[in-house]
Amino acid sequence: MTDRAAVRGELLTAVEAAAANGVDLVQVRDRELGGRALLEHVEAVMAAAQHGARARGAQVRVVVNRRVDIALAAGADGVHLGFDAMPPEVARTLLGPEAWIGVSCHSPEEVRALDPGVVTYAHLAPIFAPLSKPAERPSLGLAALEQARGAAVPFLAQGGITAANARSCLAAGAAGIALTGEILLSPNPATTTRALLGTGSN
Tell me, what's the pLDDT at 202? Predict the structure, then answer.
């Protein structure tokens, strides 16, 4: 997940490096920008992510946080919806059957209640204390992932994910991991991404 306020270097460079080394889904999150500025930012992030993915002969999906209109205008793959966004059913109607629609969840029960005919994936957070911002709610821990295991919608573990705990999240039932700080705050996003994926070391 991108965050211009939580990046050690240049955001687009970090996004390209992450995509070139294995990241396959980028969520563009920026609440400060609006209108044309946000559209241009999303387009720039998309270009960086796609360039990085092509370098490893792969593809990357890019979703936009909350803003269905910007996702449509930029030609993004979909949207990620938080608690204050439009209902996923409305987003699905607007974006069509092929779009990726993610939602944020804060309990296993919320994940289990999701309709796989509407929602593509979910974030379950915070598993651990976030690295990129102050904690806003108590950490759920690995037990929450275990309780959500078997949900109809695949879910990603989010919140404080590092190379040291990523494997335990997958073992507990998460389909993947979602993170910001571990990569964006790293002095070497490429190396950190490889470490997270188990293909390199810090």
Answer: 38
